[in-house]
Amino acid sequence: MAKIVNLTTFRKQKARAGKRSAGDANAAKHGQSKAEKSLAKARLDKADKALEGHRKEPDTE
């Protein structure tokens, strides 16, 4: 016996798999992961705070 398959579900799963693979390819080609972005931002914020802590006079803006 052949397995009965719902064609609508099958089409949706195939479309999702295609979008997922395209998204993974774009992420590898173009950018950083969310964790890498947040780590870079945290390091930048820490460096800014350290620099601000070394000021002789507070910023008057």
Overview of the molecule:
The longest helix is centred in the first third of the chain and has 24 residues, at 7-30. Helix content is 72%, strand content 0%. The protein contains 2 helices and no strands. It has 61 residues and is mainly alpha-helical. The model has no long low-confidence stretch (mean pLDDT 90). The protein has helices spanning 7-30, 34-53. Residues 1-10 have a biased composition (Polar residues). Residues 33-61 have a biased composition (Basic and acidic residues). This is DUF4169 family protein.
Descriptive tags:
61 residues; mainly alpha; 2 helices; 0% strand; rod-shaped
Largest sheet: none
**What do the pLDDT scores average to?**
90
Distance between the termini: 78 Å
Shape: rod-shaped
What percentage of residues falls in helices of 4 or more residues?
over 70%
Structural class per helix/strand content? mainly alpha
Report the strand count.
Answer: 0
- Strand % is under 5%
Q: Could you give the order of the helices and strands?
A: HH
The poorly predicted ranges are none
The rounded Rg comes to 24 Å
SS field, number of helical segments:
2
Provide a brief overview of the structure:
This protein is mainly α and 61 residues long. It is built from two helices and no strands. It holds the Pfam family DUF4169.
